[in-house]
Amino acid sequence: MHTARANTARVDPAGVGRAGATDTVATPTVITRPRTHATAQWWALTIRGLRAIFRNGEIIFAFAAPVLLAICFYLPLRSIMDADPDMDYAAFLMPIISLQSVSFVASSAAMRASVDTTKGINTRFRTMPMPVAIPTLARFGTNGALLVISVICAAVTSLVMGWRPAGSVLETVGLFAVVLAVGLLIAILADALGLLSNSPEATSQALSLPILVLGLLSTGFVPEDQFPEWIQPFVRNQPISQFATSMRALSDGTVTLEILTPTIWWCVGLGIAGVFLTGLGIRKAVR
């Protein structure tokens, strides 16, 4: 009688038969994108804007604008204005030359923001791992650099005309602090209008016309008493005239807090409007 032996197969503890080899399970490799710091992103976009300034010829206009203004107003009116023994027309004209350079920066800022919107650049930025405020802050950096260049050109033009600061060093620093503060605030406001606009050309025209009218109807080119009496209150109290009055007082060393107060309040108003409209523009850009 034969005894049958039952062959038992060994079962792998994991439930998988082995033939002398061990199977390995591949672990998927996760590729992580290197993080870019927000400061580096801001710097890269600012450099992009500065290159555009040189490429588009804006830097040439920054040099040419104050020179053309001096030729158009200082040369024709100098003999008439200097007939008044109390009038130094080069010193009188210096604030408006600086402020008109500021208006050029504002127009460029509005155009730059509007072009970024209409060409879809802001839409492209939304797909990148970038804080939503970085493009706007980069344009602020570009506008600030263009503003500094424009103010330097305006100061050099005024010096060539014969303007010399008669105040102290602190007052002279305050003079340029006023024009730079006004320029930055107007550039912020213009940038916000550009973000909210759908047409670069319409934005530039809508911004240039009010600045031109306010500049001509101000005490920047001629004294207040040269205007008709019915319009003198507007001429005296509008922002361009108040900025020019403060800058002249700082230039000749006669500044007081009373003279500076209207300029301070106008700057506060521009700042509030700029921040509010910039918030609306950024909200529109991220939609």
- The helical percent reads 55-70%
Instruction: Indicate the radius of gyration in whole angstroms.
Output: 32 Å
Poorly predicted spans: 1-11, 13-22
Taking the sheet with the most strands, its summary is: none
How many DSSP-defined strands?
0
Number of domains: 1
Order of helices and strands: HHHHHHHHHH
**C-alpha geometry:** elongated
Tally of contiguous helical segments:
10
| Distance from first to last alpha carbon | 90 Å
Mean pLDDT: 83
Content-based structural category: mainly alpha
Give the quaternary arrangement of the chains: single chain
Strand portion, in percent?
A: under 5%
Description of the structure:
The longest helix is centred in the middle third of the chain and has 30 residues, at 89-118. This protein has one domain. 70% of the residues lie in helices and 0% in strands. It is built from 10 helices and no strands.
Chain-wise SSE layout:
Elements lengths: L37 H18 L2 H24 L7 H30 L2 H6 L7 H28 L7 H28 L3 H17 L15 H6 L1 H14 L4 H29 L2
Helix pairs in contact: 1-5, 2-3, 2-5, 3-5, 3-6, 3-7, 3-9, 5-6, 6-9, 6-10, 9-10
Keywords:
single chain; 287 residues; mainly alpha; 70% helix
Summarize the structure.
The chain is built from 10 helices and no strands.
